[in-house]
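Recall the central idea of this unit: under ordinary conditions, the amino acid sequence of a chain determines the structure it adopts. In this exercise we apply that idea directly, starting from the sequence alone.
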Amino acid sequence: MFLDGLQRKLQTGLCLLGVLAAHGAAAEMVVIVGKGGPDAMTKEQVADVFLGKAASLPGGAAAAPQDQPEASPLRDEFYTKMTGKSAAQAKAYWSKLAFTGKGTPPPEAANSAAVKKAVAAAPGGIGYVEKAAADATVKVVLTVH
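Accordingly, the structure predicted from this sequence is:
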């Protein structure tokens, strides 16, 4: 009986450690721009670009935002942390703007590699990817917390 209780406590502890490790292992997200883009951006500047409130990046280049796929958990985390809206709320926001002719949402890329490629190729390219996906072809301007 003592061993059964000890075994249950050990299993519970191991399960809890697994949950904590998985939570801590979440990928860090960064906002990236092309090599000629600004050196840094604020959370508000990034949010304004992705909500169509700013048409250019700091420095003047026309903003060319790239979104992650609609089903991406990264997309929901980005919009929640950067704009205070869920990805679904951001989609509804863009639907309203598109319907009234006041804007079009950022195009979706297939994944982080495609976002990075599109951002690197466009003069005002901006997107968000896992930190590990960023490389020398783009510039990190903000870490998303």
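Strands lie at 29-34, 64-65, 125-130, 138-144.
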